[in-house]
Design a protein that fits this description.
The chain contains five helices and two strands, in the order H-E-E-H-H-H-H. It is mainly alpha-helical and about 120 residues long. Helix 2 packs across helix 3, helix 2 packs across helix 5 and helix 3 runs antiparallel to helix 4. The longest helix has 24 residues. The protein is elongated.
């Protein structure tokens, strides 16, 4: 009798935890293959948005490639060198904006698409 009460108590605890999650996070209802509607607690998305960070990095890389194509290799290199002579923040910016092989390749692809300045 004690084992059955313990098992029942554990099931009740699981039901109560699930109900509390549904109250806190919201409910998602799904219809199963048999037509039964089941309610599940909504899964919380992590606060760290990996997709947003990737989009931000890609946009910054594309901006860097467009600036390389627009200014040309010599002018771009001169401006990055001038930036490297500044404060610590400017030096970090110059390190990030260095013309790496990927930037040069994408810049050369983009260059014919840019209007003449």
């Amino acid at each position: 009798m004690d084992d059955s009460f313990k098992s029942f108590s554990q099931r009740i605890s699981r039901v109560n935890r699930r109900r509390q999650k549904m109250n806190n996070n919201g409910v998602v209802r799904k219809v199963g293959k048999d037509g039964l509607i089941s309610a599940y607690p909504r899964r919380r998305m992590p606060s760290f948005q990996f997709r947003g960070i990737v989009i931000l990095v890609m946009a910054a890389f594309l901006y860097k490639a467009v600036m390389f194509a627009w200014l040309g290799a010599a002018t771009y290199g001169d401006r990055v060198e001038a930036l490297a002579q500044g404060t610590v923040v400017e030096q970090v910016g110059a390190w990030i904006l260095q013309a790496d092989p990927a930037t040069v390749t994408v810049g050369n692809i983009i260059k014919p698409l840019l209007p003449l300045a």
